[in-house]
Design a protein that fits this description.
By secondary structure, the protein is α/β, with parallel strands linked by helices. The chain folds into 2 domains: 30-114, Leucine Dehydrogenase, chain A, domain 1 (Rossmann fold, 3-Layer(aba) Sandwich); 140-262, Rossmann fold (3-Layer(aba) Sandwich), CATH 3.40.50. Helix content is 41%, strand content 16%. It has helices spanning 7-28, 44-60, 75-87, 106-112, 124-131, 140-151, 171-180, 195-199, 244-247, 261-280, and strands at residues 3-4, 34-40, 63-69, 93-96, 160-164, 184-188, 204-207, 225-228, 232-234, 237-239, 253-254. The strands form 3 sheets. Strands 1-11-8-7-5-6 form a 6-stranded parallel sheet. Strand 5, helix 7 and strand 6 form a beta-alpha-beta unit. The longest helix is centred in the N-terminal third of the chain and has 22 residues, at 7-28. The radius of gyration is 19 Å and the shape is globular. 41% of the residues are buried. The structure holds NADP nicotinamide-adenine-dinucleotide phosphate. Residues 141, 164-167, 169-171, 188-192, 195, 208-211, 214, 229-232, 261-262, 265 line the site of NADP nicotinamide-adenine-dinucleotide phosphate. The site of NADP nicotinamide-adenine-dinucleotide phosphate has 26 residues, from helix 10.
């Protein structure tokens, strides 16, 4: 029987744990855990994601503050605000909402963001620590994938894992996390010749391309675990990269879209904030 992994339920469990830890902590500390989000320009999808994260944050007792800029803002002005937030006593974590306009360098913004407030785990220091196996604040989507694999009791050591995505926020850090756990990892992308050749060998397939139905039954090894990170808006609604109905027939476990990785990614951001907050109030190193 295929295990359809319920991301909403798992996210609910993670949020419950965060909420009870925060309740206990804030009863002793004189501060409210707060995430400051930098938002540049108007992007409808970002706004939807922001609302979902804000709702989840308030459910667990985390406050959200937004710092909005016009689309044509100068990079220097955004950096000034990042530096103010870095030193603010009221802000415990900072997120730079993506996408950002092309004239602004995400790398430069991230290099100015304090790693001690890096909720998404994507500053150079946090990514570097991941690389040397000193995992600290882990990028939210890769952390969500790990949580899902743990929840589904998937053995990573020695498994053939194939990731279809090589972005700095999903595929690259996820590849390192899986290598750190002794999986054998292949990373595929748009220039990969004959994608099927790789995906068919995967005990664990993780796909995050944003191309609807890119992965069909013919890409899948029977009995494998499929994690679909992709999100696309189509005429039929939101869907992932995987042709879910045909693939679910032959795998052992699969995440649906929506209701799979998405809610767990949001919960992972809150989990990271909890860690940063605990450090700030001296409850954890
Ligand atoms: N569920 C969640 O919580 C969550 C979180 C983050 C992102 N997402 C979703 O995940 C997807 C990827 O996000 P991202 O920010 O990583 O985007 P991205 O930077 O555009 O990455 C897309 C990746 O897919 C590869 N790709 C695209 N088309 C392909 C094809 N036909 N065959 C093989 N590889 C292909 C790209 O390769 P090239 O770079 O070589 O083109 C790239 O590595 C999006 O749908 C996004 O909405 C979901």
């Amino acid at each position: 029987m295929v295990h359809i992994i319920d991301g909403k339920k798992l996210a609910g469990e993670i949020k419950e744990r965060i909420s009870s830890e925060l309740k206990e902590l804030t009863s002793r500390c004189d501060s409210i855990p707060t995430i400051g989000t930098i938002i540049i320009g108007n992007n409808r999808e970002s706004e939807l994601f922001l609302r979902l994260r804000e709702r989840a944050s308030s459910e667990v007792g985390i406050k959200s503050e937004h710092y909005r800029f016009f689309e044509d803002v100068e990079e220097r002005e955004v950096i000034e605000v990042i530096e103010e937030l870095n030193s603010s006593e009221e802000i415990h974590g900072i997120i730079i909402q993506q996408p950002i306009p092309e004239h602004i360098s995400l790398h430069r913004l991230l290099s100015r963001l304090s790693p001690d407030k890096d909720v998404e785990g994507i500053t150079p220091r946090n990514l570097g620590r991941l690389m040397i196996g000193e995992e600290d604040i882990i990028p939210c989507t890769p952390l969500a994938v790990l949580r899902i694999l743990e929840h589904a009791n998937v053995q990573l050591k020695g498994a053939n894992a194939v990731i279809v995505n090589h972005s700095p926020i999903v595929g690259k850090p996820l590849a390192i996390l899986l290598l750190n756990r002794n999986a054998t990892v292949s990373v595929c992308h748009v220039f990969t010749r004959n994608l099927k050749e790789y995906t068919r060998k995967a005990d664990i397939l993780i796909t995050a391309t944003g191309v609807p139905r890119l992965i069909g039954r013919e890409h899948i090894k029977e009995g494998s675990v499929v994690i679909d990170v992709g999100i696309s808006k189509t005429e039929k609604g939101i869907c992932g990269d995987v042709a879910f109905d045909e693939v679910k027939e032959i795998v052992s476990a699969i995440t649906p879209v929506p209701g799979g990785v998405g809610p767990v990614t949001i919960a992972s951001a809150l989990e990271n904030l909890l860690k940063l907050y605990k450090r700030k109030v001296g409850e954890e190193k």
